Amino acid sequence: MRNPSRWALAGALVLLIAGGAVAASLRVAPEASTRFIQDADGRSIVAHGFNTASSAKSTPDGLPLFTEDDLAREQTDMGTDFVRFLISWRAVEPEKGVIDQGYLDAVEERVQWYADRGYDVMLDMHQDLWGSAITPGGDWGNGAPAWATFTDGLPVNTGDMWELVYLEPGTIRAFDHFWNTTGEHPELAEHYADAWRAVAERFAGNDTVVAYDLMNEPYGGTLQGVAFESGPLTTLYQRATDAIREADPDTWVCVEPQAFGFNWGLPSALGPIDDPRDGDPRVAFCPHLYPLPMDLGDGFAGDTRGLVQGTVAQWRSNVLRTAEMLGQGEGAVPVILGEFGLDTTREGAEQYVKLVYETADAAGMGVVYWSRDDGSWGPYESDGTARNLVSWLNRPYPREVDGLVSWTSSDDGVTFEVRKSGAATVYLPPAAFTAQPAVSGAEVASWDAASGILTLDVAGDETVTVAR
Ligand code: 9MR
């Protein structure tokens, strides 16, 4: 036994999987989502990008260590079109009731970098372990402001594995106060929704910001599973959605399930969210995927490989079931895999990355990799050297497509289906696509060999194939 806590977690998973599998098998999952978040021109977006970045959790100004040049490089190297940009409640509302407009100015400036390069942005209200005030040194949690952190003097012991700090009494108490399980701090959720309203006021007219991810990896404290997700989590999402809609009728709202369990393949018990906007609802599902054996440090090899493959298959079914529930009878809502990632020095890492992208393609999900930080999980070393991940993520994909239904991608190109006439933009890695590709099912409007961007006119209900 390498580490007792590792096996305690694994044991808990076995119990959870057993219970979850029974519940999950009672409902049939759709094969794929055929709805997508749309840009301001009404074109379906296939998200391909990074979480930017973990570094924002601990910088004093709450901004990632990320420059405009870093963005230009990423676009050249991997043809990304999307970012899940980390923001935090502590930066939006550093003092109780006071919104820091200077911080929102700085976020807006970064959003403009993305706008200038044709990206779409999702703003992610990030948290891990509640907030940095759960420990005196401030080195563990991130997200919530200090004024909203009430641990009631309960201990928060820290160790090697950050996720285990979720199990500490002080961390649990901070969440219990936020969800008002204690009955002592009903104002906290109100402030959280107000903070979202302030963000929405700022970005309502901004066409580049297409989505708001309401809370990163929600955790219920002493309330877990069904009691948490169908109860206070759904209530908070409704409340934040209502607050956002007072300022911003158009930007998509993204909801996440409880992270513990769901990220390992278990079903969600989230309830439906009603969107008060006029017109079709704009609620999307943005779950994360971290198969437990890999979370615990294994690669995608040996005995672990089968476990991870099984996890990914179950996860996909459970994602689509939840997306269908959120659709409230209108089919599955759009799905974006908001986070997956790994230490790419592990055995089998390339095969795992391939498995995740192929699974997401087949299920109609865009993918946002965790994360755009330097080092063994990221695309670059801290000296700027490109890592193995760059070539794995530099793959053909349809970027923005009118009436997109589904797509597949391979090293040789893409095939996608559309249900109406309009325009499509495809990315093809320039190093591999040196000549204009062969196209069937559409007319080529433009081809830029340097950037790998192909634009097409599609006449209607077509299967479009783009190949080397
Ligand atoms: O990769 C991040 C790690 O360096 C941090 O110590 C940890 C705690 O803030 O968070 C990790 O990022 C996690 C993200 O915030 C939420 N989803 C899972 C990510 C990987 O563990």
Q: How would you portray this structure in words?
A:
With 468 residues, this protein is of the alpha/beta class. It has two domains: 4-394, Glycosidases (TIM Barrel), CATH 3.20.20; 395-468, Immunoglobulin-like (Sandwich), CATH 2.60.40.1180. Helices cover 34% and strands 19% of the residues. It has twelve helices and 17 strands. It has helices at 4-25, 68-78, 89-92, 101-116, 169-178, 187-203, 225-247, 259-262, 292-295, 302-326, 349-363, 388-393; strands at residues 44-45, 48-52, 82-87, 120-125, 209-213, 252-255, 283-285, 335-340, 365-369, 397-401, 404-410, 413-418, 422-427, 438-440, 443-448, 453-458, 462-467. Helix 6 crosses helix 7 and helix 10 (302-326) runs parallel beside helix 11. It is globular, with a radius of gyration of 21 Å. Ligand 9MR binds at residues 54, 57, 128, 142, 162, 217, 288, 339, 370.
